Amino acid sequence: MSGKFPSYEVFAIRYATRDARRPEHFIGGDPHDTPMPMDYFVWLVKGDGRAWAVDTGFTAPVAERRKRRWLRCPSQSLSLLGVDPNAVEDVVITHLHYDHVGNFDNFPRARFHLQEREMAYATGRYMKYGCFAHAYEPDDVLGMVRLNFAGRVDMHDGAVELAPGLTLHPTPGHTAGLQAVRVHTARGWLVLASDSSHYFENMATDRPFPVTLDVGRMLDSFRLVESLAESPDHIIPGHDPLVMQLYAPPRPELEGIAVRLDVAPKGAAPRSPHAARPVRPI
Length: 282
Prior knowledge:
The protein is an alpha/beta fold. It is built from eight helices and 13 strands. The chain has helices at 60-66, 98-101, 116-122, 130-133, 138-149, 200-204, 215-228, 242-246, and strands at residues 9-18, 38-47, 50-54, 69-70, 90-92, 111-115, 153-156, 160-163, 166-170, 179-185, 188-194, 235-237, 258-260. The strands form two sheets. Strands 1, 2, 3, 4, 5, 6, 7 and 13 form an eight-stranded mixed sheet that branches. Strands 8-9-10-11-12 form a five-stranded mixed sheet, with helices on one face. A hairpin with a 2-residue loop joins strand 10 (179-185) and strand 11. It starts with 8 loop residues before the first strand and ends in a 22-residue tail after the last strand. The mean pLDDT is 95.
């Protein structure tokens, strides 16, 4: 790869899970009413002497109320990978849904990077409708508002470079201000898609996840994510248990807890026929 950019290490940490079935994960359902569990992740990017947390998960009380199986504290789990959350200076929030922004107060030194459109959406007129509001925790949204008043939120308007080889890209559809994270690694350009695509299969079959503000824009975001990634095997969806099967843990004792994403997967993920596209320059 080009020496212009550092090569980062990238990790996924599985902090919760829930039982679910296939019809729950595709607009229009699915003819096969079989189990399709959902995992919950946060991500970590390390390199060039720095560390960036990507999303902060949800808390144990929220897990109990929403009937999710909470496995571990997502922020404290960073210490398993050699990162103290108290020392993290930058946290990317892909969007403000409850499973991506809880535990923000466990990062006392951090600046939070968020798309301005997401803040506007989460505090705007559509939150009076339960179909949109149910995925947000008001206290988390208010927490981000307070942090903004404290000068600790950078609200971005479009694509932005956080560091050489680390960029944020709006991928709306699921929400108004969802963003994906593009990372330069030793194996090429990797995209943490977050909920741009919950599962590999959503993108591979052009069937969006049902919790969606704008279906057309979600489909456009599928194509954008594909164009940003080195290949389909460089796309990491937001909730697919297959991630834990395709990628190896950084150490044997972290089996089932964390996997390293900057090392090639053990097999190929499902892929879209639209995916053979050139890498888009930054």
